Amino acid sequence: xxxxxxxxxxxxxxxxxxxxxxxxxxxxxxxxxxxxxxxxxxxxxxxxxxxxxxxxxxxxxxxxxxxxxxxxxxxxxxxxxxxxxxxxxxxxxxxxxxxxxxxxxxxxxxxxxxxxxxxxxxxxxxxxxxxxxxxxxxxxxxxxxxxxxxxxxxxxxxxxxxxxxxxxxxxxxxxxxxxxxxxxxxxxxxxxxxxxxxxxxxxxxxxxxxxxxxxxxxxxxxxxxxxxxxxxxxxxxxxxxxxxxxxxxxxxxxxxxx
Length: 258
What we know:
Elements: H1 7-12, E1 22-26, H2 33-44, E2 48-50, H3 51-58, H4 64-70, E3 80-83, H5 90-93, E4 99-105, H6 108-121, H7 128-132, H8 136-142, H9 144-147, H10 153-159, H11 164-173, E5 175-180, H12 184-195, H13 224-234, H14 236-244, E6 248-250
């Protein structure tokens, strides 16, 4: 692929995906990821796959790394992989092609509050029951399965680090498109410009919170201000990153395209 052609141009010309860059959308909970999963998968179809579909196929008896190692043609037909995984996941690290990382980034305190409410309101969520008896502040402090989401988790998912100097280095050395939550159209326009694939569907609104009668929203809890103060301390790097980011962050390699 030369500098004047997008991956979509090359596909239309008859090139195989295995000779082109591969895109990874890292779906972080409560960042409009379900909506973007849906739109991006349709944009890149039929060359896209959901991480969950792959793990369901593999089952519990084989690791993802082993599966990829034993199926050297795994990536050959793919242009996009989407799902709940991060930069350090074998899906990303084992790809020998040029990797373009896509993600959406939200104010960390707002995201964690939304995640807490979502888990409490979703009766089918694994943490629904334990969170019924915990305020947000208590959950952050006492429930490890929830706390893992509460400290610079977006940076660690997208860049594999929460050190901002290393984040800046990675943005300079790798290929990233990171959207700012609330600017979905701008993010998708950047992906369109870089990939050449077009969004031919309306942007849906998926996976929103559905309050349950009698279940308090986090901001209604007596210790909510303590929770917010604690979250600010746990997410200092993300708050700085989010505070400075424009509507979309793109790596230097894409500055002439977007």
